[in-house]
Design the sequence.
């Protein structure tokens, strides 16, 4: 199956052969290094404050190289793909004590005696060359390529995190690929009849993350869903009408969150007189209200929907619309909150990277789509992202639904 909404880059990341993967791995690393260079220019000592939502830049850089080496060059079972034993002894010692996110507590990363930038960059260059050499020797089946695909998409995830961490730190990243783009006036919502939908990815069709498998059959009732994400032009009237101070628009959990916030709760936005401005690249700039509303919590998204007489879509509704109406359903401007909790599908089996999904089946919501900071390779309509409902550092927004 090839979803009509899938780009060539996303198809190659999950289904491509060794040649396409080699090109993608090199391109991903080039973007990692380019964004790290922006950090070096803005923060010569690469020092950032201790905060739950960020990591030290040097740790992030070393971690992506470590992850690639750990699961490929050091993994004696890499040819077994998702059936590999994650506890198999590694072939040689590595920098596990520095970069293993499963065992190195977040707050301790600021005190680690990490190698400096030059040494870390040298190590990454060697790791990538070893990965590419092993890829040339690998077979072309899905098991043989599984960990190469995993390492590629893992690095792409960390690149996106580096971009939205940069925004929080006031670091300008000028590459036009990672800038938000205006949306047109909202088209008419898309209407869907009742029907059955197979949620998630199908086993045996290239790479899939473990939480997408083995899929789930769901019955959808008739629904109407926005053709694009909600823009600031539609969202800000809710705030201007006093919606942030009206408990009736908020869920119980959302109102608890709202009461704990200061009066100015929109991250990266402020109002100067009658004009809205956004914090971008370390400066306050005029806000283009045709941009998708972004850096919102799920609580804010759900409150707007109540105010507007709408609701958040379920992930099945979102996926059905994205896969069956790709020409009309615009996505990829912001990650989109859904009403669905992040839970395993019946029959879920964790893949070797055990800490990817299983620790986070805690009731947090699913986000769907992609953002303007997401690599094209990561933009897959069946990908399930997941963050706590209170996160607003992630470039997340929403679309609304009814029915």
Sequence:
């Amino acid at each position: 199956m090839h979803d009509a909404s899938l780009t060539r880059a996303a198809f190659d990341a999950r289904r491509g052969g060794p040649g396409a993967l080699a090109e993608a791995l090199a391109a991903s690393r080039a973007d990692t290094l380019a964004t790290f260079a922006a950090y070096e220019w803005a923060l010569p000592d690469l020092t950032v404050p201790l905060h739950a939502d960020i990591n030290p830049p040097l740790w992030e850089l070393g971690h992506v190289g470590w992850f690639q080496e750990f699961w490929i060059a050091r993994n004696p079972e890499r040819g077994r793909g998702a059936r590999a034993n994650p506890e198999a002894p590694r072939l040689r010692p590595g920098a596990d004590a520095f970069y293993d996110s499963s065992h190195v507590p977040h707050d301790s990363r600021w005190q680690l005696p990490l190698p400096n930038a030059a040494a870390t960059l040298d190590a990454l260059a060697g790791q990538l060359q070893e990965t590419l050499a092993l890829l040339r020797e690998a077979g072309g089946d899905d098991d043989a390529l599984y960990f190469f695909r995993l390492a590629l998409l893992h690095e792409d995830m960390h690149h996106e995190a580096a971009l939205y961490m940069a925004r929080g730190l006031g670091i300008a990243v000028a590459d036009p690929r990672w800038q938000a783009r205006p949306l047109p006036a909202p088209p008419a919502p898309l209407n869907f009849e009742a029907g059955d939908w197979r949620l998630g990815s199908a086993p045996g069709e290239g790479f899939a993350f473990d939480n997408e498998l083995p899929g789930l059959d769901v019955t959808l009732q008739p629904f109407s869903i926005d053709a694009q994400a909600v823009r600031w032009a539609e969202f800000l009237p809710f705030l201007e009408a006093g919606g942030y101070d009206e408990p009736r628009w908020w869920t119980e959990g959302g109102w608890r969150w709202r009461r704990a916030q200061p009066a100015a709760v929109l991250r990266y936005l402020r109002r100067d007189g009658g004009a809205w401005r956004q914090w971008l690249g370390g400066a306050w700039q005029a806000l283009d209200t045709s941009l998708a509303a972004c850096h919102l919590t799920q609580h804010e998204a759900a409150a707007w929907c109540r105010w507007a007489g709408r609701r958040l879509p379920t992930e099945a509704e979102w996926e059905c619309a994205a896969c069956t109406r790709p020409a009309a359903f615009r996505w990829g401007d912001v990650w989109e909150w859904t009403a669905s909790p992040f839970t395993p599908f019946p029959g879920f089996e964790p893949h070797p990277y055990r800490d990817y999904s299983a620790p986070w089946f805690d009731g947090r919501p699913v986000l769907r789509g992609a953002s303007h900071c997401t690599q094209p390779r990561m933009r897959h309509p069946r990908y399930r992202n997941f963050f706590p409902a209170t996160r607003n550092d992630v470039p997340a927004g929403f679309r609304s639904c009814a029915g």
Observations:
- The chain has two domains: 8-175, 190-402.
- The first helix runs from residue 8 to 15.
- The radius of gyration is 21 Å.
